[in-house]
Amino acid sequence: MGFKTQQDLVDFILKKQERRPLYESVSRFAPANIALCKYWGKKDDVFNLPTNSSLSISLGGKGTYTTISCSDHDTLIVNGEETALKAPISQRLFRFLNLFRLPDTKFHIQTTGNLPLGAGLASSASSFASYILALSHLYGWQLSRQELSILARLGSGSAARSIYDGFVVWHAASDPLASYAEPLKKTWDDLCIGLILVSDAAKPFSSSEAMKLTKQTSPLYQNWAQAAKQDFTLLKRAIRQSDFQLFGEVCEHNAMTMHATMIAAKPMILYWLPETLAVFQKVHELRKKGLQVYLTEDAGPNVKLLFLRKDRVEIQKHFPEMDVVQPFSEIPDFSKNNPFVVRIDKRDRMLGFENKQLVHERCLLHRAISVLIYRRRGKDIEILLQKRHKNKYHSGGLWANTCCSHPQPHGDLSVEAQKILIYEMGFSVPLKQIGHFTYQEQVGKGVWESEYDYLFVGQYQEGDTIRYHPEEIFAIKWMPLEQLKSELKHKPDKYVVWLPEIMSMFNKYINH
Ligand code: DP6
């Protein structure tokens, strides 16, 4: 197929697909990925066709969450801050979006990452993958994952791999339709990736520029392509056989070969800082002492360590600042409602987002919403309580307020509160936010709550049918307010730990 421009390719792939948005707003997440056998050098700059095949590991719940909303003009919010449309990051994004939308369609884009931007931690990969996943949903495209991978590749080559979790291979090919990524059907539960942030300053050369320079001027470039081919084959074997030593050696050697090749370019492309080298040295010393730890590094000063779970505690002692990802056990569960939580500081300023399970295991402060529905019966007030399903990840079988959940990264709190009420209870009433409270408690074995919780109240309207979600809730009941007060005093073990705080706020509100 003779494609000349990216637009030709997009039009070909989308030929029968919808070109008008089906929804007002959609959100999608894509994981970051770390290349283990790197993509370095393009056969074709227009279509981002790589010279060599590459292999990566996706980082579970670390990546980019993007919300695309239809609007009457374009805006871009990156990590909570409005970004000028003239800024390079906006220009790059809207150039990409223009490939897919009709000229009169405008977007309000909110995109949030939980890894530093532009520091060689593959954030452009997860960003472009999240844009394409969100667009595909917004327009209701019926495309295969391979096609989505090709489209993401047009934004940034490595984004082709961020469409998937786990180990991913991206095939080199001369045909723009044949160079896509696909997952390797092999998991490695014990594998850990340690992220060591040496600097979050933007890198001196973009990957595209640096690849071009390397290819044009480095006398070692031919060798790189050859070495990468061998590493790709060896790495697949190491993964298939769960041979960690071979795996680590190939990953580290591949990264060093790539950097050696670019250091030999004119001008020299050097991403390393003195701190980077200090980490390299420490890793080598630890290995000499018998610890199985290897490293890899992309186009930036930051280092990623590769090791197995059995050595995690020991390695963390030597790198206390290291953030450890277990790529196969920390994949967010999108089959569940609200798989992420918004991490905040004590003043409710957003720090990022995180996999729900992880936050509760590590007792990290995050944002929550509680809803309390009441009704009047003569002079009495009754509260709608739910008994949490016994399969809930904590506090199963205990009685709680009407419903609670976690707002998603770009969610408006009152919209999210309504969504939760509809999802869990099957009805909706006007809700009023009456305040917030914070608490920290152990709520199960190895599970903690540390929440900044916004309380919404609403009055039940007679005639509304309650249809509670059977996977979330075991039973419901209306309880007179006075009886609930007495129960909380005399039988607190039947109730969730956060209910007394909610009831005390509600009492103040209702008596006001
Ligand atoms: C060193 O995908 O950022 O991380 O296709 O020009 O956007 P463009 O480059 P990019 O390059 C990534 C380079 C790398 C290795 C890799 O991810 O394979």
Structural description of this entry:
The protein has 13 helices and 22 strands. The strands form five sheets. Strands 1, 4, 5, 6, 7, 8 and 9 form a seven-stranded mixed β-sheet that branches. Strands 16, 17, 18, 19, 20, 21 and 22 form a seven-stranded mixed β-sheet that branches. It is an alpha+beta fold and 512 residues long. It has helices at residues 6-13, 88-97, 123-139, 145-155, 207-217, 221-240, 244-263, 274-288, 312-318, 356-362, 413-425, 481-490, 499-510, and strands at 25-37, 42-44, 49-50, 54-71, 75-78, 81-82, 106-113, 167-170, 181-183, 191-196, 294-296, 303-308, 323-325, 340-344, 350-355, 366-377, 380-388, 399-400, 403-405, 432-444, 447-459, 473-480. The longest helix has 20 residues, at 221-240. The radius of gyration is 26 Å and the shape is globular. Bound molecules: ligand DP6.
How is this fold's topology laid out?
Elements (H helix, E strand, L loop, with lengths): L5 H8 L11 E13 L4 E3 L4 E2 L3 E18 L3 E4 L2 E2 L5 H10 L8 E8 L9 H17 L5 H11 L11 E4 L10 E3 L7 E6 L10 H11 L3 H20 L3 H20 L10 H15 L5 E3 L6 E6 L3 H7 L4 E3 L14 E5 L5 E6 H7 L3 E12 L2 E9 L10 E2 L2 E3 L7 H13 L6 E13 L2 E13 L13 E8 H10 L8 H12 L2
Parallel strand pairs: 5-7, 16-21
Antiparallel strand pairs: 1-4, 2-3, 4-7, 4-8, 5-6, 8-9, 10-12, 10-13, 11-12, 14-15, 16-17, 16-19, 17-18, 17-22, 20-21
This protein binds ligand DP6.
